[in-house]
Amino acid sequence: MSPHPQSPAVEVSGLVKRYGSTHAVNGLDLALRTGTVLALLGPNGAGKTTTVEVCEGFRKADAGTVRVLGLDPARDGDRLRPRIGVMPQGGGGYPGIRADEMLRLVATCAADPLDPDWLLDVLGLTGAVRTPYKRLSGGQQQRLSLACALVGRPELVFLDEPTAGMDPQARHLVWDLVCALRDDGVSVLLTTHLMDEAETLADHVVIVDGGRVVAQGSPTDLTSHHADDQQLRFRARPGLELTLLHDALPEGMKVREANRGSYLVEGRITPQVVSTVTSWCAQQGVLAEELTVAKRSLEDVFLELTGRELRP
Ligand SMILES: Nc1ncnc2c1ncn2[C@@H]1O[C@H](COP(=O)(O)OP(=O)(O)OP(=O)(O)O)[C@@H](O)[C@H]1O
C-alpha cells in the first residue's frame, strides 16, 4: 500500500523504548516528508539509533505509533523491507565475504536491483571488489554498506552515521549521492554528529536529547530563530583587554576571546556595532583580520540545547 502523497514517509508519535531501566527513547515525535532529507542529531546515547532501528523494524517499541511508508514496521516488516534501504551504524558486513559478493547477495533479494558493478564504480570500490569485508578500510566498509542500502532502489533510506570515519573525498561523494537520491524523490532519514553534514544535506533537523526532541526545524530556522543571535568574529593578537570595547557596545552584548587570538562579539550585530568594533581596534592599533558577521552555527545551537558536558 502506497502512502497518500501528502503523508510523511516516516511518522513517529510518542515513541517510547526502554532497555531495562534505561529509557532510550522517551516520547519522541518526528515526521519525514516524502522526498526530503531529515537529519537526527543528538549527543551520544540520545536515542537516535534506537529510534532508527524501531523505524526499520529491527526493534519493537514499548509505546507510541510508528508509520513508515504508511506501514507499521513491527507488523508489516515483510512488505516494508523491499521498499527501504538500511545502512546500519558501523557497516554491518559479514567478515569473510568479498565486497562484490556482499553487494550481489543483497541485490539478489531485490525485485529490480541496480547494476552492482555500476554502483561499485560510483562508490569508488572497483579496486576493492575482491577484498574480504574485514580487510576493507573503515571508509570502504561504509561505502559498501551504503551500496547495499541503495542497490534495491529503495523509496526510503535510513543512514546511521553514513560518513563516520570517511575521508573528506568520500564524505563529499556520499553528500552528492544523498542529494541525487532526494532529486529522484527518495526520502532519507540520517543520523550524524557532523553539524556541517546536517546543514548541507537536511531539509529538516531534529535534535534529540535524553530520548526526546529538544528542537526541530530547517537548519535556517534553527540558526536564525532570534534576530539577536548573531556573531561578529575577528582575529587579532592574543590577550587584548576588552573592557573598553564591552563598555562601548550596546547593553546586553557580549565580547570575549573565544580561542587564542580569535574574538567573538555576540548579540544584534548592526552596522553601528561593526563601526564600534573597528573604531576600537583602530584606537588600540589592532588590525582586525578575517572580520566576519554571521548567524550562529548549528553547532552553537546544538551545544546550547544539549550542553557541553560529556555523556556517559
Ligand atoms: N541493546 C541495548 N541494550 C541496552 N541498552 C541499550 C541498547 N542499545 C542502546 N542502549 C542504550 O540506550 C540509550 C540510547 O542509545 P542509542 O544507541 O539509541 O543512542 P544514540 O543517540 O544512537 O547514540 P550514539 O550517538 O552514541 O550512537 C543509551 O543509553 C544506550 O546505552
Automatic annotation (TrEMBL):
Sorted UniProt keywords: Antibiotic resistance, ATP-binding, Nucleotide-binding, Transport
Disulfide bond as UniProt keyword: no
Predominant location: membrane
GO molecular function: ATP binding
InterPro entries listed in its UniProt record: AAA+_ATPase, ABC_transporter-like_ATP-bd, ABC_transporter-like_CS, ABC_transporter_ATP-binding, P-loop_NTPase
Localization (cell): Cell membrane
Recorded topology in the membrane: Peripheral membrane protein
PROSITE patterns per UniProt: ABC_TRANSPORTER_1, ABC_TRANSPORTER_2
Record CDD domains: ABC_DR_subfamily_A
Pfam families: ABC_tran
Residues forming coiled coils: none
Signal peptide: none
All copies of domain ABC transporter, residue ranges: 10-235
PANTHER family the record matches: ABC TRANSPORTER ATP-BINDING PROTEIN
UniProt name for this protein: ABC-2 type transport system ATP-binding protein
Taxonomic source organism: Saccharothrix longispora
Lineage of producing organism: Bacteria, Bacillati, Actinomycetota, Actinomycetes, Pseudonocardiales
